[in-house]
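ARCHIVE CARD
CATEGORY: sequence design from structure
SOURCE FIELD: tokenized fold
FIELD CONTENT:
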């Protein structure tokens, strides 16, 4: 069995940020993420997986303004690279949507994290289904289900091919990716 810890900055419960012991700035506090990772590693977890979102949550703006845990937080690859330096074993996993990225950019980012962490990077491939996310990338709407999954299949196939090249770019004497 493999154990993974999925982290929302201030907790999974909608009111977790209201707890007196909660860290209200958890989403933008690197020390908080590093501490969570170190605690999970001591607890023998195999991986950590911080939350990711490429758009603000949908909902009533007034209600959402009282729910900070989903509004402001780091994109995950940057803190995961820092966390790599303060941990030694735990896997460092993040999401990257095939719908709103290009294979070369995703591979380059995850290959960098993998190299920095000594082989501990993991990629959670998603297609994203929300129209709000599409708007965030200058699109009027999101692709349909079948088109998203066809793209994801091709995306992963291309990424696998590029990954072989990217990992070679970290070898001494290689001229880069």
């Amino acid at each position: 069995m493999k154990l993974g810890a999925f982290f929302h900055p201030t907790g999974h419960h909608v009111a977790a940020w209201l707890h007196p012991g909660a860290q209200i700035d958890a989403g933008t506090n690197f020390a908080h993420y590093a501490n969570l990772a170190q605690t999970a590693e001591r607890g023998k977890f195999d991986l950590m997986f911080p939350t990711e979102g490429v758009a603000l949550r949908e909902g009533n703006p007034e209600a959402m303004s009282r729910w900070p845990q989903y509004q402001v937080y780091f994109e995950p690859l940057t803190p995961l690279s820092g966390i790599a330096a303060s941990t030694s074993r735990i896997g460092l996993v993040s999401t990257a949507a095939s719908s709103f990225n290009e294979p070369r950019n995703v591979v380059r980012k995850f290959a960098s994290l993998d190299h920095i962490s000594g082989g501990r990077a993991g990629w959670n491939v998603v297609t994203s289904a929300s129209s709000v996310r599409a708007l965030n990338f200058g699109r009027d709407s999101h692709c349909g289900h079948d088109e998203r999954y066809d793209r994801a299949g091709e995306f992963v196939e291309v990424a696998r091919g590029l990954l072989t090249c990217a990992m070679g770019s970290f070898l001494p004497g290689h001229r880069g990716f």
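CARD ANNOTATION: Confidence is low (pLDDT under 50) at residues 172-177. The radius of gyration is 18 Å.
SHELF: design records, drawer C
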